[in-house]
Amino acid sequence: MAVPPSTHPRRLLPLFLGLFQGALLLFFALFVAYDEASAQEEDTNLVANQVYSIFPFFQDIQVMLVVGLGLLLTFLPCYGFSALTHNFLLLNFSMQWALVLQGLLHHFHHGQTHLDLHKLLISEFAAVTVLISMGAILGRASPCQLLVMATCEIPVYLATEWVIVSCLGVRDVGGTITIHVFSCYFGLGVSKALFRATQQPLHPKETPTSRSDLMSLVGTLILWVFWPSFVAVLCQPGNAQHRAILNTFLAMSASAITTVVASSLLERDGRLSPGHLQNSSLAGGVAIGVVADMSMPPVAALALGSLSAVVCVLGFRFLTPLLGRKLTFHDQCGIHNLHGLPGILGAAASVVAVLVASKDTSGSHSFQLSPVGGNASDVVEGQWGGRGGGGQALCQAAGLAVAIGASLLAGLLTGAALRLPCLARPPERLCFDDSLYFKIQDQAESPGPDSSAEEGALALKEQV
Q1: Which of 111, 193, 372, 435 is the most exposed, having the fewest neighbouring CB atoms within 10 Å of its CB?
Q2: Residue 381: which pLDDT band, with cuts at 50, 70 and 90?
Q3: Cα angle for residues 308, 141, 132 (degrees, 5° grid)
Q4: pTM
Q5: Cα–Cα distance, 251 to 243 (Å, whole number)
Q6: SS3 state at 450
Q7: Could you tell me if 251 and 259 are in contact, meaning their C-beta atoms sit under 8 angstroms apart?
Q8: Rounded to whole angstroms, how far apart are CA atoms 31 and 237?
Q9: pLDDT, tens digit, for every residue of 179-197?
């Protein structure tokens, strides 16, 4: 007997997740183990130092991703349950999937891969790319579509990151290029292919309310507080990590103040835009990541934070409407303004920083590889690994080009795959609505006159 259309989408999600978790259980049972306990005092101290040095940062990042980013996505007034839950679901799904791929690609020896806190943190960085990309299609994609997107994005990210960091030798300690730029243009590529050339009209439930904007702003504040931990967690302990924390804080502080200035000047009545505050206040943290551990004067961090906030505000005010009209790009959360533009600005700043630092003959500038790759813990000795300042600057620019090109192409292909009818894309009239996926208690207690129509709408099949 054929599955009724009304139950097919609901059965697809648990089936997909159940098969994934079952396969993961089998993989862990056969191939994953912890490092064997060592009786040597040096090894014991090494593990203890790793726990004490990484775990506090790890906790901060967990709060950022689960609470901060989840609340930031609740600006859609009728989609709060879905935004928080989908963010939480994708984080766990993508992290486990990244653990498997990382183990197979980088840490598979003698038929096993050993798990530790460092590898878990690396996989969580990979999962961040999916959470950012989701922002482009938030509210208009089903959970199954988001899970398929995560399944495709993680391996592409790992391959792209390997090319950028291991092959090109790009310095990107905070993931500005490898995480923010990649995930932004991957999400935009998915959005472009998923919605094709049709410009999406403004949905009645798409307009934020004061309450939803307030919840989203709380998410911004949580992200702002813990962002230095995200940038500095895998810096070399000591001066590099100390610089990364200070530079990130300075950049984000400057971006917060500049956001208020720019938003007030751009609005005719001088009042602040909640959307600007929610996003542009974080732009400094995106831009500073690629140069956070570099030896540079504090004024450079302040200037980069201010400039990134201005770019982000201008993007929301002018560029997003232009891209929507001319190129029919749909960017629900404005990830291009928060992650794409400041990421490009940060990459450009890294080129300048490398060229300036190459003229310093004191040898005081040391840089390390990005913390988001398989070889992230390897520290490059010397200035630029024998390439010279000009060569390293070209590598930084090439890394940016690879991140944009690879992510756009992969995003377009993934978006085309998401158009499959079996993935249950929600009909337009039910987008941005929690009732499509959740049993809302107050609705169940007080059904309105349109409840039967709503139940009928839930039975609609995917319309492509």
Answers
A1: 111
A2: very low
A3: 25
A4: 0.88
A5: 12
A6: coil
A7: no
A8: 31
A9: 999 999 999 999 999 988 6
